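Below is how a single chain appears once it has passed through the pipeline. First comes the sequence as given, then the structure the pipeline wrote out for it. We keep one example in the README because the format questions we get most often are answered faster by looking than by reading.
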Amino acid sequence: RDRDARSLEAQQLARRWFGLFTDMVGDDPEVVERSRQAYASEPLLRIGLGIGDEVMDFLRRAMENLQAQES
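Resulting structure:
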């Protein structure tokens, strides 16, 4: 895991992004995971997000780091 995705700023961004994401899809863990998988495997779904693959990858790493710290 890279250092940037471990930073406090990255963790704050990940929390904020996840809050927005769950506002959109709800907080049922199964729905959240299926939505993540769909966005990861279907590039056309990401068009409306306005966020490129590089930023999505960074957010994913930041969320992984955040979850690792919270567990």
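Residues 27 and 44 are 23 Å apart (CA to CA).

See the next section for the split statistics.
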